């Protein structure tokens, strides 16, 4: 009998990394096998009895590491005849990384394979002396633990290159000993934090719980778990003394006290998990003339670009060209004047002046300058300043406060569209100001109002995308820009995204 196990994989390299693990399992069961990769799917054919195939599937569930890039899809029996010459009985390559069971034993003091790197880590040296045995490795890591407790920085060379570890000097980059430590210190829910434990060991930007902000000297950190076996073993040894995390800093590779080389290396990846998918926060190092050049490679779709540094774009990519669907250019003075000319809005301004004279004075001060632009996030900076959330108009206070909100929704802010004489559509910024200032007057808490500003934007974009998808018969939407890397907004955007459309990400989230 022949069965095929189908796996979803990111690319052919991922398939090649995992295939030796599958082949080794098949060899251990004395089954014949072969594998094929095509279109992000790895097919592993197993020639064996139903009982052996069931045993293979059971073993697979026990030892296959949880991975961002490789996951089981389905199993089915093949009834049509296959070329017998395709099948093999021996594996030509050995696995490059420990399977889930081996890794568990590597960390278990009571296991026979405790601290045994299984030949997967080479040239391990401490203070220039080669380490040959598991006992020597434990002794060296125990020494390293003592040095970490007394010294400011300990330089090591890991599977991701040189870095310094510190228990005394806080850094935004933190390696936690395990998932429970991450959940204790940060606001990450388990469904997001679990990705930290995947084989690829990505990083996730996480907001800290209030009680830990002073310890970490930050409101947010880049959280990760140990990304290779030796780091994991060191963190386990630290954990025995109640040390749950270690700060990491950049370092010179020549200074490393501990040095080792792993056969399997995982590049550093920053991700933003959300309900439907995992967003890769990958930046292109290529220099682009502007954001339009960066976006020109997108497929036939509606394109949404929200970046902290560059103009906001809502575009239609059709027939090889990009067309603007909505202008987001704003002029602060024009918006302020429109408020003064409107009867309801002018009354609101007078009430705002009476209740918040200092904040109203800020509006008058800003009106002396020609403030404006085409970046929605620049407008949010000014809005946060006007609402009294920050002491200058260059801080992203609205976004920071929204992250602190414990409620799922905020008040509805008016995002309306203006049509000019040529029927071009633009966002009505005075309406946004009017409703936000009205809620501030009504005493809505800062965090709740800030979330409302983002929540209402996400709902507006969802409706706008749906209308334009119908008008232009488009089925796909491509998102890009580093603002989508902010989980507080990505979650809201995905929540309001039209269910019948396909959401795609650009090849790169943004560019340097």
From TrEMBL:
This is Protein hydE. The lineage of its organism: Bacteria, Pseudomonadati, Campylobacterota, Epsilonproteobacteria, Campylobacterales.
